[in-house]
Amino acid sequence: MTTRRTRPAPRPPEGTPPRAELARQARAVLADAVRIAHWAAGTPGPGTAAPLAAHALERAATALELSPAQVRAGWDRARLAGLVELHGDTARPGWRLRAWDRDDSAVLRGWVALFDAWSLVHAAPEGIEAGAVAEAVEAVPQVLSLLQLSAGSVTVPALLDLLGQRVAELQEERCEVPLGPGRTAPAASAAPAETAADQAAATAGPARSADLNALLLDWALEGLAAVGALTLGQGHATLTPLGNWAVWVKLEQICVAAQSPAGNIEQSAADMLLGCARLTPGPARDEYRAWLAARTVGSAVAELLAVARGEDALLRGLAFEALRVVGAPAEPEVRAVLAEPSLRPYALLWLAEYEGNDPDDAQDVLSREEATWLWVDTAAAVADHGETGLLVRHLDSAVQGTVPALLDEVRAVGHPRTVQVLVALAAAHPDPALAKAVRRAAFQVHTGGA
Question: Please, which residues have CB within 8 angstroms of residue 361's CB and are 6 or more apart in sequence?
Fold first, then answer.
């Protein structure tokens, strides 16, 4: 048993409104999105999927007395905030919509999901290559940090200077290894003569880069303003109370992680999950949040799913626990892995809980075969990392009522670790007759017998 040092709960910056007031502001930002989500969830039949069908758009605009542009914008926000979920061509209310009027935490989490997706809310300027847009998005957290630490308005030139510096750092991190000792650049005579056009392009490059950064900064500030994170004045920007609180929370998560004795913030997903394996659920979720806060959502989700596809069943289960902390931004990627047999049971349970089902009832979404596959996978995790007594007790969690029925279905399910699990179970079980039956089943699976 290890003791973890704790510190007092951090206090938000002076002047930050209480959570109830922040939630009220978030409800105001998402008011149209909530109305449209209620309308879509209560509309029978297909036609409310994205992109919003023309006839549904017209019906929504008429029913809600909004313009088509407002309906379309509100629909996008509702999806990004987790207020609606799409199942084929049918929209269903998300769990946040059901909790919207009574749960301030659900409201704030919904708004933060929208805040994280600001670059999707406000389309990037046309004609700019995707790499430049991605660099700007990656640099925006630095801009937000400056705004938060300044505790007031910051001039656009100062923000532009910071954006340019951060973009330059990102470009430098990705460039090739510079020439070192013993390596020389090609001789000047080997290169073709520089033309006047080349000289002009080289001279104009920095100016064009500054213009591009200015254009991207304007886009980012407008996108953040569109989700209620900041306000724009004449030549300056200021975080709203919501934006100030959200940036503070993310900075605090990073600071906590940096002080963690385990140092999980710097670990790969696999090492981070292993480091959390023996923690109780609360501290483990804190570690997941800290690790996630130091990464972009997309890269973190991709890394967790890559670990889940590996051979270690313990890490597979822990990866989906970490994905529960991610919440709404992970939903499309989790839904996409339903076609992968090894991940499908985990994904189904994740989606069931995400959609508001009680965790105790979530198992009902699994077919008998999927539940059996999950039982074997969990048993493999216990066999690899747990104690023998846990493996014996794991028998009680099987959906089959008897051990013979379990063995029959385990043999049929085709899990790659079936033999190892049955051998370990036979070795651990104190009942000689049951252990013999389990060993016989392991032999039959190994030899391909019936």
Answer: none
